[in-house]
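Quick one, probably user error.
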């Protein structure tokens, strides 16, 4: 079965207990894929190809299989670094450093989150930055900071 439209996120379905739910575990970077093949916890195979490419997948995306059944995506927890900048200046410095390292991040609630990376961890330790390493199921895929289009390619 090919699924082409997200019904809702499970947290937005008030009568969730009236559905039979099949779950599929995906990696956070799978949320970025335009075509996804998955096998549910009921051993059913599905293809996901969203009709509207502007619509994205996220942790909890639910697909209506029929009037009684849902397929729900659950993101496998990733090991992440969560940085808590001291102030807006520190936020800018950390974002600049991560941008130079070409690391995709999520910025929310005054914190910067990125997938675990030993080089970043050592850099943060050297700077005495406030950070923690933890396991977390990401709600949406990490994004590259692209505040302005720039390139490291040099033209002759």
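Nope, works fine. Designed sequence:
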């Amino acid at each position: 079965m090919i699924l082409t439209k997200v019904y809702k996120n499970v947290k937005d379905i008030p009568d969730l207990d009236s559905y039979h739910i099949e779950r599929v575990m995906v990696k956070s970077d799978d949320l970025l894929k335009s075509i996804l093949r998955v096998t549910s916890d009921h051993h059913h195979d599905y293809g996901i190809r969203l009709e509207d490419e502007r619509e994205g997948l996220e942790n909890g995306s639910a697909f209506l299989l029929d009037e009684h059944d849902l397929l729900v995506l659950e993101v496998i927890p990733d090991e992440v670094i969560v940085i808590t900048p001291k102030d807006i200046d520190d936020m800018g410095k950390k974002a600049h450093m991560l941008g130079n390292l070409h690391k995709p991040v999520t910025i929310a609630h005054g914190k910067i989150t990125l997938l675990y990376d030993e080089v970043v961890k050592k850099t943060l330790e050297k700077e005495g930055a406030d950070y923690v390493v933890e396991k977390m199921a990401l709600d949406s895929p990490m994004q590259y900071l692209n505040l302005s289009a720039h390139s490291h390619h040099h033209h002759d």
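Helices lie at 88-100, 118-127.
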